[in-house]
Sequence to fold (690 residues):
Amino acid sequence: MRVIIASTSVPHIDGGGRLIVRWTADAMRAVGHEVEEFYLPFPTDPRPSLAAMVGLRATPFAGSADRLIAIRWPAHVIRHENKATWFIHHYRQFFDLWDSPHRGIQINPESLAYRETLRRIDNRGLAESRDLFTNSLIVRDRVREFNGLDAEPLYPPLGGDTSRFRTDSYGDFIFYPSRITPIKRQLLAVQAMRFTSSPVRLVIAGKPDEGRFGREISDYVREHSLEDRVELRLGWLDEDEKVDLLARCLALAYLPLDEDSYGYPSLEASHSAKPIVTLRDSGGALEFVRDGQEGLVAEPDPRDLAQAFDRLYEDRAATERMGEQSFARRDELGIAWPHVIRRLLGEAA
Amino acid sequence: MKLLVANNAAPFVRGGAELLADRLVLELRRAGHEAEVMRLPLGNTPEQILESIVAASLMDVVNVDRVIGLKFPAYLIPHPDVVIWLVHQFRQAYDPPPVGWPQDPSFDRAASAVRVADRHAFASTNRLYAISPMVADRLQRSNGLTAAVLMTPPHSDQEYRTRTAEDFIVALGRISDGKRQRLAIQAMRYARPGYRLVVAGPPDNPAMLDQVRREIDESGAGDRVEFIPRFITEDEKLDLISRCIGSVYLPVDEDSYGYVCYEAAMSSKPSVTATDSGGTLTLVDHGRTGLVSEPEPRALAAAFDELSRNRDRARQMGENARAAALGLDLSWSRVVEELTR
Fold:
């Protein structure tokens, strides 16, 4: 089948937003489809003009492929006679963050009108899609709430050759690989290390978004003399090194605040058959991790998190069992390219 | 500098302009810039052409210092710093049929929109370059604008070589109607004895392959035409060129100087081209660097005969051709310097 994957992007920023597009395209090519990726420039900040949205909708894709798959807001406004939308999230400040401190928008008649216009544009683009998918249950629920439409959750798998992941041992350390940024709450993991009673260690790895938070973490480790038990690898983590740490760790920690999806680190842990520690308010990760099954779900509190770390260290049998369940969980949820591709192309599950 | 190389796109089709855009991005990066390609679909119908104008004109591009526009409608992107390196205009809106659209109200509306959009883009661009004298001439005729000529360097940097001419003339390139290899084969009917024609390159489609085979059979010169209907490696290609008497390249109204002519010239071989081949005349100067023939089998055969009969003269023309090719000063560093200054 000839497939166009249309996405939006900001030039020169190669973020995770492009990964899902590239991986999907590669996975489709691997099974013989002809795929072209289009990344159409679209600014998300400051708030986009409605004219830019009209421009996106005008883009003449009709008739040029058997299927068009729109990924990343607002690519779903693009017209095609056989369009599927894989909806990752709304323009968040105007919808799911509207009633939160992160709204950052003054409520006035103009912003209310803009919000209503966005909602109608979303409704149109989503409703005219032949198939509508989201990347999580959370976003599915939001689409129902804000747009009154039923979407099917379709969980994005990891791309590339996943056979590189392996399981060497269940070592003595919890591994938290992720961008170092306040919303991922690495500091909470470090704070928990003051309250553990077992010899469990913590390894945090990733590139700090801004110097301040990385420094805050380092300072905290030093001030509380946690150097022996907390290892910080602040900076770009080499892929081989990451795979190796995943293979040897006791469990993975993934502690974001209210994220839309389970996050790629969770999947990497699953591929390495490691349990995942997450938090009650982490969002999408809870769709993957059920407490005591694929890992542990703690309260967003250092003492409670410390208990979870200890439990993983002390009951290795349970840890290994949860690691196996973490591995199996992908199959249960259909997190696999054959399934994702079939659905995206409109075939039966 | 953060650059966006804006090209148009026909989904699932890749041709010379796509190669050019990819290479340009590579060269810009090598020179220390951040660069990426943005492809905007052009559409097929007149309605879609209108839509593509809307799409390009309303595009909101951020985090880019300069847009380098190659083709319609991508160079319509509104940005304070657009440099156009024109590969070619949207000729359906300018030329008479059959290249241009037929006279028809629906086409007329789209054609006039294209011209208005072009006029606006060309007027507001920071600088305007054309990839060949041919493209610059057309722009002068159709829009009354003067573009600086910035010719495209060849895609690959080759080790060209020259060997003593063996008894054949070579016809290289994609096998298609537009490149008229069949005309060269027809010429072999009238060619004097003493040399062969070697036709090498991938046919555009299976029908083309059949047509060329039939042409060879019908020419009655089957034993004098060698057909290699496949993609040949760079090395095979350079080897063939190095051993030929001369190269024949007969595109219809080509935009650029023609890589085939350039490669022959760099290998110190003369080229035979046609009076209506367009840009190839940049490198083929009749009697000095090669021969320019009427696009007609007998005239072509006469040109082949002349090269074959007078090898010393052919060799001299080959040497002149190499000097002419070097004189074009085709280098990516110069292109990058111009487009980013």
Observations:
- Chain A has a mean pLDDT of 95.
- The CA atoms of residues 291 and 340 of chain A lie 26 Å apart.
- Chain A has two domains: 2-155+335-344, 162-332.
